[in-house]
Amino acid sequence: MIYKKGLYLKFPPDIVDKPIVYKLVKDYDLIFNILKATITPGKEGIMIMELEGTPEKVKNGLEYLKKIGVEVKPLEQQIIKNEEVCIQCGSCTAVCPTSALYVDRESFKILFDPQKCTACEFCVAVCITKAMEVHVESSTQKIL
């Protein structure tokens, strides 16, 4: 069985120059897809990635990341839709590359499926009421 999970990774300044993703591939036999990264030597690094492999290999890879000091959070916790602010205009659905934001054909309301979200932040940029928000609080949700 193959397991695929979107992750938000935060690297402390002292390890941003290490070959961390390389080790995930070589030592843990994982497949990765980097969706977004901001990594500057000597400063904190942020990476949004999809990690794929058997559940055991993904678990071992995540344990490695945590052991070396990488903060690991599930990706679906990173973008939230503030229902109280949303005016159901649909602008976000036009730019969402994964269809995580879509129009319910019966109610004509904009729905958000965080499991499909890759945290590209296109919706955040186009939302005129700022209903789409980047949420970076620590998550207690279990990753695997």
| Beta-strand proportion | 25-35%
When the domains are counted, the total is 2
Structural class: alpha+beta
Examine the coordinates and then state which fold CATH places here, giving the name of the CATH topology of the largest domain.
Alpha-Beta Plaits
Describe the sheet with the most strands. Answer: 4 strands, antiparallel
The total strand number stands at: 8
Tell me the name of the CATH class of the largest domain. Answer: Alpha Beta
- What is the string of helix and strand elements? EHEEHEEHEEHE
Q: State the separation between the terminal residues, measured CA to CA.
A: 14 Å
At CATH's second level, what is the architecture of the largest domain? 2-Layer Sandwich
Number of helices: 4
Biggest sheet strand line-up: 2-3-1-4
Percent of residues in helices:
10-25%
What's the name of the CATH homologous superfamily of the largest domain?
ACT domain
Low-confidence spans: none
Shape: elongated
Residue-averaged pLDDT, rounded? 88
Rg on CA atoms, Å: 17 Å
